Amino acid sequence: MAPKTGMQIRKAEERDLKRVMEIERSSFTSPWPEGLLRGYLGEDGFLVGEDGEEVVGYILVGLRIPSFFSRLERRTRLLFQRRDETDPELHIGHVMNLAVAVDRRRRGLGSQLLRAGLGYLRDLGAWRVELEVRTQNREAIQLYRKFGFSIERLISRYYSDGDDAYLMALRLRGNP
Ligand SMILES: CC(C)(COP(=O)(O)OP(=O)(O)OC[C@H]1O[C@@H](n2cnc3c(N)ncnc32)[C@H](O)[C@@H]1OP(=O)(O)O)[C@@H](O)C(=O)NCCC(=O)NCCS
């Protein structure tokens, strides 16, 4: 059995970006550009897992509303948004990215990161979490199923290379 690791999870910082990009490039056929990930630095939903000094994985989650809004005081937010804060559409979480270093997989790290990301979304008030995953990505689909996500529909040619995605969703609690 692969050895257990003592991964600590914390907010991503500028100094992590190089390693995050290494993992990103070795994990995806169409990796995110560095500038896109850089744009999420400072967000509470951008988390890295660190084993000793080494970043071994990361997750990026957020509500559908720009997280800028989620940090504002409620009344200020409503002024900006002019939408009813109870609108369920505003409380749908999204798993935007998740990866574990190739040589660290299958040791529970992806699960730890996902658990942390879902916990954060729950704290933000998300009642439902959605994500897109390539239909051939057996490992990830299996991981999400283990957490209770189910496939809701197929999104044809979702990816720029023409691959299809499944929309998977998890209900965290009753619709607000
Ligand atoms: C998906 C990913 C994050 C999983 O990370 P991980 O650290 O290996 O995951 P875990 O060790 O926590 O595995 C949790 C569960 O996922 C499933 N799983 C993970 N790897 C698997 C594999 N190679 N084959 C089948 N199931 C797998 C299993 O159900 C596993 O539970 P089990 O070990 O009790 O059987 C990792 O494979 C990865 O980085 N893949 C490339 C990037 C990616 O596809 N990200 C998801 C984008 S939507």
Search tags:
176 residues; alpha+beta; Aminopeptidase; 7-stranded mixed sheet; 28% strand; globular; binds coenzyme A
Task: Summarize it.
The protein has 176 residues and is an alpha+beta fold.
Overview of this structure, please?
The protein is α+β, with helices and mostly antiparallel strands and 176 residues long. The protein has a single domain, classed as Gcn5-related N-acetyltransferase (GNAT) (Aminopeptidase, 3-Layer(aba) Sandwich), CATH 3.40.630.30. Helices cover 30% and strands 28% of the residues. Strands 1-2-3-4-5-7-6 form a 7-stranded mixed β-sheet, sandwiched between helices. A hairpin with a 2-residue loop joins strand 2 and strand 3 (54-63). The longest helix has 15 residues, at 109-123. The radius of gyration is 16 Å and the shape is globular. The mean pLDDT is 88. The protein binds coenzyme A (COA). Coenzyme A is lined by residues 27, 98-100, 105-111, 133, 137-140, 142-143, 146.
Could you list the spans in which at least 5 consecutive residues all have pLDDT below 50? none
Order of helices and strands: EHHEEHHEHEHEE
- CATH topology, which one? Aminopeptidase
CATH C-level category: Alpha Beta
CATH superfamily: Gcn5-related N-acetyltransferase (GNAT)
Number of helices: 6
Overall geometry: globular
Strand portion: 25-35%
Estimated structural class = alpha+beta
**How many β-strand stretches?**
7
Architecture per CATH nomenclature, i.e. the level-2 architecture: 3-Layer(aba) Sandwich
